[in-house]
Amino acid sequence: MDTSIALILIQDGITNGAIYALLAIALVLVFAVTRTIFIPQGEFVTFGALTLAGFVSGKTPGTATLLVAAGVIAWLMDLAVAVRFRNFRPLLRSTIGFVVVPVLFYFVARYAAGHGLPLAVNVLLTLALVVPFGPILYRIAYQPVAEASVLVLLIVSVGVHLAMTGLGLIFFGAEGSRTPAFAEGSLEIGSTTISAQSMVVVGTSLALIVALYLFFEFTLYGKALRATAVNRRGARLMGISTVMSGRITFAVAALIGCFSGMLVAPITTIYYDSGFLIGLKGFVAAIIGGLGSYPIAAAGAILVGLLEAFSSFWASAYKEVIVFTLIIPVLLIRSLTSKHIEEEE
């Protein structure tokens, strides 16, 4: 291996690591606020990439229909609760969020699919279809068992992952898709060539991380999520709704996953089940951060990306094995150095 090859591998590692960093941050956020190990995070990557690919190809993405169907299910669940407790006041907000907005986005998506809109508009439409699916998913699968143990929430996550993978096959099909690059060309720095797409990926990831920092540091909702992450019971006693916190958290996770999918779609072909491996690498980075530290998780993501890039050069057939083996010493070290605390009943 010479210097030029090493620099190319480092560039690929940092580019992939930027994607994994976003996913790791989303996983840490969801676990901190809801105590959920969010295995389906990778499915939002898939949905984001394939939804954008659908718009680019002039087809109405299956996400539009899925969003309406899931919204109706969530609304029916809220209706059942309203009838049971004879309190119909929250049903108006539920109707707007779970029925009106998804139906509106469905018709917008159908209109936009056949008009060859610019890529930037398609990106916004993709966000409009995928991000609302986060709170809807929380309402359907996680809100009814929000106070259950971490093990129960993990089992629910496994079920949701399998369900979303199957739905991805139904609504997107088995064929893979790619999207056009967000930027063409390259930048020459000495003997190193940096592609414009890599710069877009890294730059967008950094911008999104900064935006998340500003959201958690300076907005009321961000501070509410931080309070819920520190102490759920204390946040509830201070008037912070854990239901609201959960829905916002899942919306942010869907936003991050969708962005990650759109960034990775021009780099590699995405299939309906591609999100699992991508999300699992983000999970390895989150484990390095102990599912609690955002900076360490982001640094771990860069390490995972570099390890994957160099493994693909030295032993491409075993690169996945090498990356996932990294989790064993990390878990061993954390098991020996961390204090074990019994979960509150």
Structural class: mainly alpha
Average the pLDDT over all residues and give the rounded result: 87
Radius of gyration, Cα only, in angstroms?
20 Å
Question: What is the 3D form?
Answer: globular
Could you give the order of strands across the largest sheet?
1-2
Give the strand content.
under 5%
**Number of spatially distinct domains:** 1
Report the count of strand segments. 2
Measured distance between first and last alpha carbons: 55 Å
> Any low-confidence stretches, pLDDT <50, length ≥5?
none
Given the structure, what is the number of helices? 15
SSE arrangement, N to C: HHHHHHHEEHHHHHHHH
Largest sheet: 2 strands, antiparallel
Fraction in helix:
over 70%
Give a written overview of the molecule.
This protein is an all-alpha fold and about 350 residues long. It has one domain. The chain is about 75% helix and about 0% strand. The radius of gyration is 20 Å and the shape is globular. The model has no long low-confidence stretch (mean pLDDT about 85).
Give the topology, please.
Blueprint: H1 3-34, H2 41-56, H3 62-85, H4 91-113, H5 119-130, H6 133-142, H7 150-172, E1 186-189, E2 192-195, H8 196-218, H9 220-230, H10 232-237, H11 242-264, H12 275-288, H13 294-314, H14 319-325, H15 327-337
Antiparallel strand pairs: 1-2
Helix pairs in contact: 1-8, 1-9, 1-11, 1-12, 1-13, 2-5, 2-7, 2-11, 2-12, 3-4, 3-6, 3-7, 4-5, 5-11, 6-11, 8-9, 8-11, 9-11, 12-13, 13-14
